[in-house]
C-alpha cells in the first residue's frame, strides 16, 4: 500500500514519528526503522525536536515529544466540551447545585464548562476562571492520580494531604469544605480519557448550609455518574 501523500518531507517526518511510537530510538535505530538515509533521518529528527514533536531521553535517544500530547489533549478537550453541556445541565438538575468541569493547566486549573444553579444562593465559577491547584475537591481529583514526583511537588502548600489523596483514589471522588472559599462545599469525580488517564474533574458546588458537612453523602453518586458519561464519550471518540 502506498502511504505517500505527495509531500515528501512530510511523509518522511511521519515515518520518523511512527518509528518512535514503539519506544526510544538511537539515530541508527531510526535509520533502520525508516529506511531513510542517516543524514536525512538526523535532520528530520532534529527539526521535529525543535518543534517539540520529538525529544530526547536521559540516554540521548529520540522519543516522542510533549507537543504531541498537548495536541492530543486539545483534540480530547474539543470532544469533552462537545459532550459537557448536557451532562453538566443534567447534573445541576439532579443535585440542584451549580456544576462545573475543570481541566489542569500547568499549576492551575481552569473551568472549561459550567451549568449554573438557576436561582437562590449559588457558587458561581464563570467559564474561563483560573483557580488554584492547592485547594478544592476538583484540585484533589486532578492531583490524586499524578506521577509521584509531580504529586509531591503539588502537595507543597496545599490545603489537602497525601493521606487525603490516597482516600480520594480509594473512593473515586473528593469533597471539600471551605478549602477554596469559606462557606463553600464541593464534590468532584475524575473524567478519564481513552488511556484511562484523568483528563478533567466534574464538580458540584454550593453553600455548606445546603450541601452539609458531608457533601459526598448527598452528591458523590451523581457526580460519579456524570464523570462516567463524559469518560464514555471520550472513549467512544478515542
Automatic annotation (TrEMBL):
Biological process annotations from GO: negative regulation of DNA-templated transcription
Domain of life: Bacteria
Record's keyword annotation contains Oxidoreductase: no
SMART domains, per database record: HTH_ICLR
Pfam families: HTH_IclR, IclR_C
Entry-linked InterPro entries: GAF-like_dom_sf (IPR029016), HTH_MetabolicPath_Reg (IPR050707), Tscrpt_reg_IclR_C (IPR014757), Tscrpt_reg_IclR_N (IPR005471), WH-like_DNA-bd_sf (IPR036388), WH_DNA-bd_sf (IPR036390)
Chain ranges of the HTH iclR-type domain: 7-66
SUPFAM superfamilies: GAF domain-like (SSF55781), Winged helix' DNA-binding domain (SSF46785)
GO molecular function: DNA binding; DNA-binding transcription factor activity
Sorted UniProt keywords: DNA-binding, Transcription, Transcription regulation
The UniProt record lists the keyword Metal-binding: no
Segments forming domain IclR-ED: 67-236
Protein name in UniProt: IclR family transcriptional regulator
